Amino acid sequence: MIDWDSLVLGPLETIFGEGEQPAGKVMFYPAGGIGYAIDGVFDSAYREVEMIDPMVGVASTQPVLGVRLSTFAQPPEQDDQVFIPRVNQRYLVTEVRPDSHGWAKLMLSEM
Description:
Layout: H1 4-16, E1 26-29, E2 36-38, E3 41-53, E4 56-68, E5 81-84, E6 89-98, E7 103-110
Antiparallel strand pairs: 1-2, 1-5, 3-4, 4-7, 5-6, 6-7
């Protein structure tokens, strides 16, 4: 069995994560809890294409933070918050999209 967290997700986060940026790690604030530092891969303009009709696609962009679920004391949820030091911006988590390998996309909205 492949250990996705240590063989794939950890190295991915080490190379592309915000923790490698001079500004420092992301701060995660669970709703009603105490904040703590995490790492993650931030994209300020993640593009998603929705197929409304087979002939017409609609593209939209929004900020997203890719995270390793193993770094959280409790899984992230809607209404949690993150602060990205590199862009000096706090975001609200609007949706959590986990995959089957221990990674999740936190769909974000500016506060």
